[in-house]
Design goal:
The structure is a single chain. With 108 residues, this protein is mainly alpha-helical. The chain has 2 domains: 34 residues; 64 residues, no CATH class. It has 4 helices and no strands. Helix 3 packs antiparallel against helix 4. The protein is elongated and about 65 Å long. The N and C termini lie far apart (62 Å). InterPro entries: Brnchd-chn_aa_trnsp_AzlD. Keywords: Membrane, Transmembrane, Transmembrane helix. This is AzlD domain-containing protein.
């Protein structure tokens, strides 16, 4: 069994590393805030990540249920339409699309 001083040192080192790793992004972000590249990433990355997520999810659903592809298309269309016409509220559009998907999947 390790001695007490060894365990205290291990916990202290782990704590210091954790604090430094949590503070590092804030220290690195300060000089980058005025960068045009970082601002462009902040503008385009969320949409790009959502696009990748949607493509992966839709392709997986098309492969899993080829006969019910219209359900996925209908739910995606409802999600987009609710998002565009209901004030771009992401949570509302996600709930509407998910509800339509579950409803159609259970009905057909």
């Amino acid at each position: 069994m390790p001695e007490l001083w060894y365990m205290i040192a291990a916990v202290a080192v782990a704590g210091i590393i954790t604090i430094l790793l949590r503070a590092l992004p804030f220290a690195l972000l300060k000089p980058l805030r005025s960068s045009r590249f970082v601002k462009a990433l902040g503008r385009w990355m969320p949409a790009g990540l959502l696009l990748i997520l949607a493509v992966v999810m839709l392709s997986g659903e098309f492969a899993a249920r080829p006969g019910r592809a219209w359900i996925v298309v209908a739910a995606a269309a409802v999600t987009v339409l609710v998002h565009l016409f209901a004030g771009r509220r992401a949570l509302l559009s996600i709930f509407a699309g998910t509800g339509v998907y579950v409803l159609l999947l259970n009905l057909f």
